[in-house]
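Course assignment 3, question 2. Fill in each field.
Student: A.L.
Task: Predict the tertiary structure for the chain below.
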Amino acid sequence: MLQQEKRAYNFNAGPSALPLAALEQAQKEFVNFQGTGMSVMELSHRSAVYENVHNEAIALLKELMNIPQEYHVVFLQGGASTQFAAVPMNFLAQGKKAGYVLTGSWSEKAQKEAKLIGETYVSATAKETNYNRIPSFDELTMEPNSAYLHITSNNTIFGTQWHDFPDTGDVPLIADMSSDILSHAFDVSKFALIYAGAQKNLGPSGVTVAIIRPDMLERAVNAERIPTMLRYDTHVKNNSLYNTPPTFGIYMLGLVLKWAKQQGGLAAVEENNRKKAALIYDVIDASNGYYKGHAQPDSRSLMNITFTLSSPELEKKFLAEAKNAGFVGLNGHRSVGGCRASAYNAVPYESCLALSQFMKDFQKNNG
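Answer field:
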Protein backbone atom coordinates (compact mmCIF):
# COMPACT_ATOMS: atom_id res chain seq x y z
CA MET A 1 0.00 0.00 0.00
CA LEU A 2 1.06 3.57 -0.62
CA GLN A 3 1.27 4.52 3.04
CA GLN A 4 4.04 1.93 3.54
CA GLU A 5 6.22 3.61 0.96
CA LYS A 6 8.32 6.70 1.57
CA ARG A 7 6.53 9.71 0.13
CA ALA A 8 8.51 12.58 -1.34
CA TYR A 9 8.30 16.11 0.00
CA ASN A 10 6.40 17.15 -3.12
CA PHE A 11 6.49 20.89 -3.82
CA ASN A 12 5.87 20.60 -7.57
CA ALA A 13 4.03 23.54 -9.10
CA GLY A 14 1.73 21.29 -11.15
CA PRO A 15 0.88 18.57 -11.64
CA SER A 16 1.25 18.59 -7.91
CA ALA A 17 0.61 16.65 -4.74
CA LEU A 18 -2.64 14.73 -4.37
CA PRO A 19 -4.08 13.65 -1.01
CA LEU A 20 -2.71 10.27 0.03
CA ALA A 21 -6.20 9.16 1.09
CA ALA A 22 -7.54 9.88 -2.41
CA LEU A 23 -4.69 7.96 -4.04
CA GLU A 24 -5.24 5.00 -1.73
CA GLN A 25 -8.98 4.95 -2.43
CA ALA A 26 -8.30 5.02 -6.18
CA GLN A 27 -5.78 2.22 -5.73
CA LYS A 28 -8.36 0.15 -3.86
CA GLU A 29 -11.01 0.66 -6.54
CA PHE A 30 -8.75 0.72 -9.57
CA VAL A 31 -9.55 -2.70 -11.04
CA ASN A 32 -13.10 -3.22 -9.80
CA PHE A 33 -15.16 -0.08 -9.17
CA GLN A 34 -18.27 -0.60 -7.04
CA GLY A 35 -18.62 -4.23 -8.05
CA THR A 36 -18.84 -3.50 -11.78
CA GLY A 37 -15.88 -5.72 -12.61
CA MET A 38 -14.38 -2.72 -14.41
CA SER A 39 -12.13 0.21 -13.62
CA VAL A 40 -13.65 3.67 -13.68
CA MET A 41 -11.54 4.18 -16.79
CA GLU A 42 -13.46 1.36 -18.48
CA LEU A 43 -16.97 2.56 -17.66
CA SER A 44 -19.15 4.14 -20.31
CA HIS A 45 -19.59 7.82 -19.64
CA ARG A 46 -23.29 7.23 -20.40
CA SER A 47 -23.64 4.60 -17.68
CA ALA A 48 -25.60 5.25 -14.50
CA VAL A 49 -22.58 4.27 -12.40
CA TYR A 50 -20.35 6.88 -13.99
CA GLU A 51 -23.05 9.56 -14.03
CA ASN A 52 -23.32 9.18 -10.24
CA VAL A 53 -19.57 9.85 -9.97
CA HIS A 54 -19.90 12.83 -12.29
CA ASN A 55 -22.88 14.42 -10.58
CA GLU A 56 -21.51 13.82 -7.09
CA ALA A 57 -18.33 15.71 -8.00
CA ILE A 58 -20.39 18.69 -9.19
CA ALA A 59 -22.52 18.66 -6.04
CA LEU A 60 -19.47 18.42 -3.77
CA LEU A 61 -17.73 21.34 -5.45
CA LYS A 62 -20.87 23.46 -5.10
CA GLU A 63 -21.13 22.51 -1.44
CA LEU A 64 -17.49 23.11 -0.53
CA MET A 65 -17.17 26.43 -2.35
CA ASN A 66 -20.69 27.60 -1.45
CA ILE A 67 -21.42 28.13 -5.12
CA PRO A 68 -24.88 29.61 -5.69
CA GLN A 69 -27.21 26.84 -6.80
CA GLU A 70 -28.17 28.60 -10.01
CA TYR A 71 -24.55 28.64 -11.21
CA HIS A 72 -23.46 25.99 -13.67
CA VAL A 73 -20.43 23.76 -13.03
CA VAL A 74 -18.93 22.08 -16.08
CA PHE A 75 -15.92 19.85 -16.70
CA LEU A 76 -13.86 20.76 -19.76
CA GLN A 77 -10.67 19.66 -21.47
CA GLY A 78 -7.73 21.57 -22.89
CA GLY A 79 -6.58 23.21 -19.68
CA ALA A 80 -6.98 26.82 -18.63
CA SER A 81 -4.95 27.78 -21.70
CA THR A 82 -7.86 26.80 -23.94
CA GLN A 83 -10.13 29.00 -21.83
CA PHE A 84 -7.87 31.96 -22.66
CA ALA A 85 -9.39 31.78 -26.15
CA ALA A 86 -12.83 30.44 -25.24
CA VAL A 87 -13.62 33.40 -22.95
CA PRO A 88 -13.25 36.12 -25.61
CA MET A 89 -14.77 33.92 -28.29
CA ASN A 90 -17.92 33.64 -26.20
CA PHE A 91 -18.10 37.06 -24.58
CA LEU A 92 -16.06 39.67 -26.47
CA ALA A 93 -18.53 41.27 -28.85
CA GLN A 94 -17.59 43.60 -31.67
CA GLY A 95 -17.51 47.18 -30.42
CA LYS A 96 -16.63 46.06 -26.91
CA LYS A 97 -13.26 45.76 -25.18
CA ALA A 98 -12.01 43.21 -22.68
CA GLY A 99 -10.05 44.42 -19.68
CA TYR A 100 -7.12 42.41 -18.34
CA VAL A 101 -5.25 42.92 -15.08
CA LEU A 102 -1.69 41.81 -15.73
CA THR A 103 -0.09 40.13 -12.71
CA GLY A 104 2.19 37.60 -14.35
CA SER A 105 2.89 35.33 -17.28
CA TRP A 106 -0.50 33.60 -17.36
CA SER A 107 -2.49 36.83 -17.41
CA GLU A 108 -0.25 38.02 -20.24
CA LYS A 109 -1.00 34.83 -22.15
CA ALA A 110 -4.72 35.21 -21.52
CA GLN A 111 -4.67 38.72 -22.96
CA LYS A 112 -2.55 37.60 -25.92
CA GLU A 113 -5.22 35.07 -26.90
CA ALA A 114 -8.01 37.61 -26.46
CA LYS A 115 -6.23 40.01 -28.82
CA LEU A 116 -6.69 37.43 -31.56
CA ILE A 117 -10.44 37.65 -31.08
CA GLY A 118 -11.13 41.33 -30.42
CA GLU A 119 -10.07 44.51 -28.67
CA THR A 120 -8.48 44.45 -25.22
CA TYR A 121 -6.99 46.93 -22.79
CA VAL A 122 -4.80 46.70 -19.70
CA SER A 123 -6.86 47.58 -16.65
CA ALA A 124 -3.81 47.56 -14.37
CA THR A 125 -0.37 45.98 -14.36
CA ALA A 126 2.43 45.13 -11.96
CA LYS A 127 4.94 44.43 -14.70
CA GLU A 128 7.08 47.45 -13.88
CA THR A 129 8.04 45.84 -10.54
CA ASN A 130 8.56 42.39 -12.07
CA TYR A 131 5.14 41.25 -10.91
CA ASN A 132 5.99 41.30 -7.21
CA ARG A 133 2.58 42.63 -6.16
CA ILE A 134 -1.13 42.69 -6.90
CA PRO A 135 -2.41 46.09 -8.08
CA SER A 136 -4.69 47.90 -5.65
CA PHE A 137 -8.35 48.40 -6.46
CA ASP A 138 -7.61 52.12 -6.96
CA GLU A 139 -5.29 51.26 -9.83
CA LEU A 140 -7.95 49.38 -11.78
CA THR A 141 -9.52 51.15 -14.72
CA MET A 142 -12.58 49.90 -16.56
CA GLU A 143 -13.64 51.37 -19.85
CA PRO A 144 -17.38 52.01 -20.20
CA ASN A 145 -17.74 49.54 -23.08
CA SER A 146 -16.05 46.67 -21.27
CA ALA A 147 -17.26 43.19 -22.13
CA TYR A 148 -15.63 41.82 -18.98
CA LEU A 149 -12.68 42.25 -16.62
CA HIS A 150 -10.27 39.31 -16.39
CA ILE A 151 -7.94 38.54 -13.50
CA THR A 152 -5.62 35.69 -12.56
CA SER A 153 -6.25 35.04 -8.89
CA ASN A 154 -2.90 33.45 -8.06
CA ASN A 155 0.38 33.71 -9.91
CA THR A 156 2.40 30.52 -9.70
CA ILE A 157 5.57 31.89 -11.26
CA PHE A 158 5.89 35.08 -9.20
CA GLY A 159 4.20 33.95 -5.99
CA THR A 160 1.51 36.63 -5.68
CA GLN A 161 -2.18 36.24 -4.93
CA TRP A 162 -5.35 38.33 -4.80
CA HIS A 163 -6.60 38.30 -1.20
CA ASP A 164 -9.77 40.22 -2.00
CA PHE A 165 -11.65 40.85 -5.21
CA PRO A 166 -13.02 44.05 -6.74
CA ASP A 167 -16.66 44.87 -7.21
CA THR A 168 -16.96 45.44 -10.95
CA GLY A 169 -20.63 46.38 -11.01
CA ASP A 170 -22.30 45.60 -14.32
CA VAL A 171 -19.02 44.50 -15.89
CA PRO A 172 -18.68 40.70 -15.57
CA LEU A 173 -15.67 39.64 -13.50
CA ILE A 174 -13.88 36.58 -14.90
CA ALA A 175 -11.03 34.77 -13.17
CA ASP A 176 -8.48 32.12 -13.95
CA MET A 177 -8.20 30.39 -10.57
CA SER A 178 -6.12 27.43 -11.68
CA SER A 179 -3.62 27.60 -8.86
CA ASP A 180 -5.68 28.60 -5.83
CA ILE A 181 -9.22 27.35 -6.36
CA LEU A 182 -10.55 25.51 -3.29
CA SER A 183 -7.67 26.83 -1.16
CA HIS A 184 -9.60 29.55 0.69
CA ALA A 185 -13.12 30.84 1.10
CA PHE A 186 -14.43 33.72 -1.03
CA ASP A 187 -17.70 35.00 -2.44
CA VAL A 188 -18.27 33.15 -5.69
CA SER A 189 -21.23 35.40 -6.53
CA LYS A 190 -18.78 38.24 -7.30
CA PHE A 191 -17.78 36.34 -10.42
CA ALA A 192 -19.51 35.82 -13.72
CA LEU A 193 -17.11 33.04 -14.69
CA ILE A 194 -14.35 31.13 -12.92
CA TYR A 195 -12.19 28.58 -14.67
CA ALA A 196 -9.38 26.44 -13.36
CA GLY A 197 -7.14 23.60 -14.41
CA ALA A 198 -7.46 20.80 -11.87
CA GLN A 199 -3.80 19.89 -11.46
CA LYS A 200 -3.00 22.13 -8.49
CA ASN A 201 -5.75 21.67 -5.90
CA LEU A 202 -8.60 19.74 -7.51
CA GLY A 203 -7.15 16.58 -9.00
CA PRO A 204 -4.92 15.28 -11.77
CA SER A 205 -4.13 17.09 -14.99
CA GLY A 206 -6.61 16.67 -17.82
CA VAL A 207 -9.71 18.21 -16.20
CA THR A 208 -10.66 21.88 -16.32
CA VAL A 209 -13.52 23.21 -14.20
CA ALA A 210 -15.67 26.18 -15.18
CA ILE A 211 -18.19 27.84 -12.86
CA ILE A 212 -20.62 29.96 -14.86
CA ARG A 213 -23.25 32.46 -13.82
CA PRO A 214 -26.40 31.70 -15.85
CA ASP A 215 -26.77 35.14 -17.45
CA MET A 216 -23.38 34.71 -19.12
CA LEU A 217 -24.88 32.15 -21.47
CA GLU A 218 -27.25 34.86 -22.68
CA ARG A 219 -24.32 37.24 -23.19
CA ALA A 220 -22.57 34.83 -25.54
CA VAL A 221 -21.91 36.42 -28.93
CA ASN A 222 -21.77 34.90 -32.41
CA ALA A 223 -22.63 31.47 -31.02
CA GLU A 224 -23.23 30.11 -34.51
CA ARG A 225 -19.62 30.98 -35.43
CA ILE A 226 -17.93 29.50 -32.35
CA PRO A 227 -16.71 25.90 -32.63
CA THR A 228 -19.12 23.66 -30.74
CA MET A 229 -16.57 22.44 -28.19
CA LEU A 230 -15.60 26.02 -27.28
CA ARG A 231 -19.15 27.12 -26.51
CA TYR A 232 -20.03 27.12 -22.82
CA ASP A 233 -23.68 26.41 -23.55
CA THR A 234 -22.69 23.17 -25.27
CA HIS A 235 -21.34 21.79 -22.02
CA VAL A 236 -24.04 23.29 -19.80
CA LYS A 237 -26.87 21.81 -21.89
CA ASN A 238 -25.21 18.39 -21.91
CA ASN A 239 -24.00 18.33 -18.28
CA SER A 240 -20.40 18.11 -19.59
CA LEU A 241 -21.30 14.91 -21.45
CA TYR A 242 -21.48 16.27 -25.00
CA ASN A 243 -18.45 14.15 -25.82
CA THR A 244 -16.43 11.69 -23.74
CA PRO A 245 -15.18 13.61 -20.70
CA PRO A 246 -11.94 12.77 -18.84
CA THR A 247 -13.78 10.26 -16.68
CA PHE A 248 -10.91 9.05 -14.53
CA GLY A 249 -9.76 12.60 -13.85
CA ILE A 250 -13.28 13.57 -12.77
CA TYR A 251 -13.44 10.51 -10.54
CA MET A 252 -10.14 11.54 -8.93
CA LEU A 253 -11.41 15.11 -8.58
CA GLY A 254 -14.40 13.73 -6.69
CA LEU A 255 -12.11 11.82 -4.33
CA VAL A 256 -10.09 14.97 -3.67
CA LEU A 257 -13.30 16.87 -2.88
CA LYS A 258 -14.37 14.12 -0.47
CA TRP A 259 -10.99 14.41 1.22
CA ALA A 260 -11.39 18.19 1.53
CA LYS A 261 -14.80 17.73 3.11
CA GLN A 262 -13.35 15.21 5.56
CA GLN A 263 -10.72 17.76 6.59
CA GLY A 264 -13.54 19.99 7.81
CA GLY A 265 -14.38 21.78 4.58
CA LEU A 266 -12.93 24.91 3.07
CA ALA A 267 -12.46 26.75 6.37
CA ALA A 268 -10.24 23.98 7.70
CA VAL A 269 -8.35 23.69 4.41
CA GLU A 270 -7.69 27.44 4.41
CA GLU A 271 -6.51 27.43 8.03
CA ASN A 272 -4.05 24.63 7.27
CA ASN A 273 -2.81 26.43 4.16
CA ARG A 274 -2.13 29.58 6.18
CA LYS A 275 -0.18 27.60 8.78
CA LYS A 276 1.87 25.83 6.10
CA ALA A 277 2.77 29.03 4.26
CA ALA A 278 3.66 30.78 7.52
CA LEU A 279 6.25 28.11 8.32
CA ILE A 280 8.23 29.04 5.22
CA TYR A 281 7.57 32.78 5.11
CA ASP A 282 8.66 33.05 8.75
CA VAL A 283 12.02 31.53 7.88
CA ILE A 284 12.42 33.97 5.00
CA ASP A 285 11.52 36.95 7.18
CA ALA A 286 13.83 35.88 10.00
CA SER A 287 16.81 35.18 7.75
CA ASN A 288 18.10 38.79 7.68
CA GLY A 289 18.04 38.79 3.90
CA TYR A 290 19.67 35.40 3.43
CA TYR A 291 16.44 34.32 1.76
CA LYS A 292 14.70 37.07 -0.21
CA GLY A 293 11.01 36.68 -0.96
CA HIS A 294 9.93 37.91 -4.37
CA ALA A 295 6.39 38.99 -3.50
CA GLN A 296 5.59 42.04 -1.42
CA PRO A 297 4.19 40.88 1.95
CA ASP A 298 0.62 42.03 1.33
CA SER A 299 0.54 40.18 -2.00
CA ARG A 300 2.13 36.93 -0.89
CA SER A 301 0.63 33.72 -2.19
CA LEU A 302 -0.37 30.94 0.18
CA MET A 303 0.15 28.50 -2.67
CA ASN A 304 3.46 29.43 -4.28
CA ILE A 305 6.27 30.75 -2.10
CA THR A 306 9.00 32.27 -4.26
CA PHE A 307 12.42 33.32 -3.03
CA THR A 308 16.05 33.72 -4.00
CA LEU A 309 19.42 33.39 -2.29
CA SER A 310 22.37 35.77 -2.59
CA SER A 311 23.96 34.15 -5.64
CA PRO A 312 23.18 31.64 -8.39
CA GLU A 313 25.92 29.40 -6.99
CA LEU A 314 24.33 29.33 -3.55
CA GLU A 315 20.90 28.65 -5.05
CA LYS A 316 22.35 25.76 -7.03
CA LYS A 317 23.84 24.30 -3.86
CA PHE A 318 20.59 24.82 -1.96
CA LEU A 319 18.55 23.05 -4.62
CA ALA A 320 21.03 20.18 -4.92
CA GLU A 321 21.10 19.55 -1.18
CA ALA A 322 17.32 19.87 -0.96
CA LYS A 323 16.93 17.26 -3.69
CA ASN A 324 19.25 14.89 -1.84
CA ALA A 325 17.14 15.43 1.29
CA GLY A 326 13.99 14.31 -0.52
CA PHE A 327 12.49 17.67 -1.53
CA VAL A 328 11.00 17.72 -5.03
CA GLY A 329 10.04 20.66 -7.23
CA LEU A 330 11.79 23.56 -5.48
CA ASN A 331 13.31 25.04 -8.63
CA GLY A 332 11.84 28.38 -9.63
CA HIS A 333 10.12 28.66 -12.99
CA ARG A 334 12.58 28.64 -15.87
CA SER A 335 11.54 32.18 -16.84
CA VAL A 336 12.54 33.75 -13.50
CA GLY A 337 14.85 31.30 -11.74
CA GLY A 338 15.31 31.25 -7.98
CA CYS A 339 13.35 28.87 -5.78
CA ARG A 340 9.68 28.10 -5.38
CA ALA A 341 7.80 25.98 -2.87
CA SER A 342 4.27 25.20 -4.00
CA ALA A 343 2.28 24.33 -0.89
CA TYR A 344 -1.05 23.35 -2.42
CA ASN A 345 -3.89 21.84 -0.41
CA ALA A 346 -2.58 18.28 -0.46
CA VAL A 347 0.98 19.16 0.57
CA PRO A 348 1.12 17.98 4.20
CA TYR A 349 1.94 20.35 7.03
CA GLU A 350 4.83 18.03 7.86
CA SER A 351 6.40 18.65 4.45
CA CYS A 352 6.36 22.41 5.01
CA LEU A 353 7.74 21.94 8.51
CA ALA A 354 10.56 19.81 7.11
CA LEU A 355 11.34 22.43 4.47
CA SER A 356 11.42 25.24 7.02
CA GLN A 357 13.88 23.28 9.14
CA PHE A 358 16.00 22.46 6.09
CA MET A 359 16.14 26.17 5.19
CA LYS A 360 17.23 27.08 8.72
CA ASP A 361 19.92 24.39 8.71
CA PHE A 362 21.16 25.40 5.27
CA GLN A 363 21.57 29.02 6.35
CA LYS A 364 23.36 27.94 9.51
CA ASN A 365 25.77 25.72 7.58
CA ASN A 366 26.29 28.08 4.64
CA GLY A 367 26.02 31.49 6.23
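Instructor remarks: The domain at 266-365 is CATH 3.90.1150.10 (Aspartate Aminotransferase, domain 1). The mean pLDDT is 97.
Grade: pending
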